[in-house]
Structure formats: structure tokens, C-alpha cells
Amino acid sequence: MTETPKNVLKRHGAIPFKNDIRHPAADVFFDIFSKAEMCSELLPAIKYEPFEKQIFNGEIAYFHIVHYGAFLLCPHDAKEPIYLSPGDIIFAPSGVSHWIEFQGTSSQRAEKNFPGPDNKITSGFFKFDSVGGQALMLGLPKFLHVSSRPSIEPDTLGSKEWLALTVAAMQKEMARPSIGSAIMLSRIIDLMFIWAIRNWLFTAPTEITGWIAALRDSMVGHALALLHSEPGADWTVEKLALEVGQSRSNFANKFGQMVGDSPMRYLTRWRMQLAGKRLRSSNQRVSKIAEDLGYDSDAAFSRAFRRELGLTPTEYRLKYTE
Q1: pLDDT at position 127, please?
Q2: Alpha-carbon span 23 to 41, nearest angstrom
Q3: What pLDDT is recorded for position 23?
Q4: What is the CA radius of gyration of the chain?
Q5: In terms of C-beta distances under 8 Å and separation of at least 24 residues, what long-range contacts does 202-207 make, across chains too?
Q6: Where are the alpha helices (DSSP H) in 110-217?
Q7: 282 with 294: CB under 8 angstroms?
Q8: Which of 20, 41, 71, 207 has the most other CB atoms within 10 Å of its CB?
Q9: What are the chain's domains?
Q10: Which helix (H) or strand (E) holds 226?
Q11: Block means of pLDDT (10 residues each) for the chain, length 322 residues?
Q12: The pLDDT of residue 296
């Protein structure tokens, strides 16, 4: 009889790993990020001349990783530039048009004549291959900037050390590509994006809204975790309010203010994202998917799906599985 992994660990005296780092808010983020299907691609290296500008047009979500040299990022629709130093990373998730200018190194800026460009910045773009990516983007700022520069605030997240190690890993993989390099670089970019979101949540003002920001609130975060853990349950606003220990009106008002959607509207959106994922990746019957997601009839499910995604479940499956 084959031993289970748990019994093997016990026989060898190993201490089982307890996944204590997972908590309701983390589960909600994991659900949405994993179903968003992020993919990224690095752009060809650009050699910046001193004070040369490179334009990055909108409608594409770009990211930039500064290895060395000082850069200035200027959004086309904003007055305030963003200063980028070696070790910084910045993502533009909403596809804001911007340009980047090489400012020179500190020694070069001290001289009137540059001896030559001394800079390196890795740029690329990313997108999401499912409608879940739209949910992920909701509530994010135009730019997610993680700075490596010293700050008067304590580095509670350990960003400086983590960033240095991650950027170094990317540089090494790009300098000496081998088997699986493309996958490794893609995963590194995933990590940087998640870290940028975490850093933003930690430093952003308390009044920001959106489902990601709502994870910081214990009551709304708990409600989101319930909706994600049991999307097919017969939820109502009253039931959710009872679960989080609030009156119906207080709960509904706070949820709407923080998330930007009513609880039931959010649940419908989440159900349809789950349905889309299953339609694309499995041969399950539409009726089975509808039942699992809390719909009593195929017709009601199809109407909700069409309202959300613009296609019937059958049309959606045909379009995205060809």
C-alpha cells in the first residue's frame, strides 16, 4: 500500500508546514489574481542618450525596472513627474500614456558634458487573458511605484532588500538565458506586480476605494472572503450582514463605499468570472456550472452571463476555445 505524503513526513519526523500566511484577504486576492491570467513580455533594450525621451503610448499596460541611472517619468495627463532611481520598479496598470527621460547618473549631472550614457532600464508590457483581469484593475491607481530610495518611514515590508534581490535575479536571468528563462522572467514580473500592489496598499491613504483596498477593512474583507469561498451559496445582503455582525444598512453602505459595487452586484460579477474560466477550460455542461454557482435555472444563469459578458455561455465557449 502506498503511503500518503503526510504519513511519510510523520515517519521521518518532519514537521508539517502550516500555511499560516493564508488569511481571508489573501485568499480573495489569490482567487482573482490566479483567474486573471497575467502574461507579460519584455521589450527590446533601449539605449537612452542623456535627456533623451522615450514615449510609451496608452492603451497598453507598461512596467519599468531601473537597474542604474536616474530617470524621469512624466504622465501625459499629469503635471507632477515621477523620479525613478536605481532599483525602482513602476507599473502603469491602466495604460496611461507617458514618457521617460534619462537624467544621467549623479556624476554625469555634475558635469556639463556627459562622457556618455550610463543607464539601464528594463521595460515591458503586461496584460490579462481573461475578464478577471478587469476586476483586478478596478481600484488600482494609474501608477504603482515602489521606490528603493531611503525613507524616513520604517521599511516594514522589507521592500528594499526584496527589491534588490529580485532585480538582481532578473538581471542574471536576462544576461545568461537558459532553459525556462522566459517562464522565470514572467514569474519574476508577476511577483513584482503583486509586491507593487502590496506596497501601494501599505502606503496609500485610508480613503482609497476599490475591492483591493477594501481588503484592508476587517468587516468588508470578511464579507469578500465569504463570497469568494462560497460563490454558489444563497447569499443575501441580510445574510452577509449577519455573518460580519453589522446591520443590513450599515453593511450595505460601507461595502458600497469601499468596493464601488453593491454586495449582490459584486457577487454576480465574481460568479460570471468563475463561469467564464470554467467555460474556457473545461467541458462541463452549462447547467452544471449554473447549479454550482447558485442559479436555479439555466435561463437565469444565461441572462446574467450575457448581461455581464455580452455573450451567452454557449457563444462564449465557442469564441474562447477555438
Answers
A1: 87
A2: 31
A3: 56
A4: 23
A5: 202/156, 202/157, 203/153, 204/141
A6: 132-137, 159-175, 181-203, 211-214
A7: no
A8: 71
A9: 37-203 (2.60.120.10), 211-320 (1.10.10.60)
A10: helix 218-229
A11: 55 47 64 81 82 85 90 84 91 90 63 56 86 71 85 58 84 90 92 88 74 84 90 96 96 92 94 92 94 96 95 93 68
A12: 94
Q: What is the pLDDT of residue 16?
A: 46
Whether residue 237 contacts residue 261, with contact meaning beta carbons closer than 8 Å, is answered with no
Distance of alpha carbon 260 from alpha carbon 241, whole angstroms: 17
Nearest to 251 by CA among 264, 238, 261, 260: 238
Judged by phi (left if over 0) then psi (alpha if -120 to 50, else beta), residue 96 lies in: beta
Closest CA to 77 of 173, 143, 168: 143
Residues 155-165 as b/e (b if ≥16 CB within 10 A, e otherwise) read eebebbebbee
Q: Report the C-alpha gap between 307 and 118 in whole angstroms.
A: 53
User: For residue 279, how many other CB atoms are within 10 A of its CB?
Assistant: 24
CB of 254 within 8 A of CB of 220?
yes
In order, the DSSP letters of 60-112 are: SEEEEEEEESEEEEEETT-SS-EEE-TT-EEEETT---EEEEEEE-HHHHTSS
Q: What letter would DSSP give residue 131?
A: T
Distance in angstroms between the alpha carbons of the first and the last residue of the chain:
43
pLDDT at 13: 53
Report pTM: 0.72
Q: What is the reported pLDDT for 113?
A: 47
> Starting at the edge strand that comes first in sequence, how are the strands of the sheet with 98-104 ordered?
53-56, 98-104, 70-75, 82-84
At 318 the pLDDT is 92
Look at the block and give the residue holding cell 532585480: 167
Using alpha carbons, select from 258, 279, 276, 264 the residue that is nearest to residue 227. 264
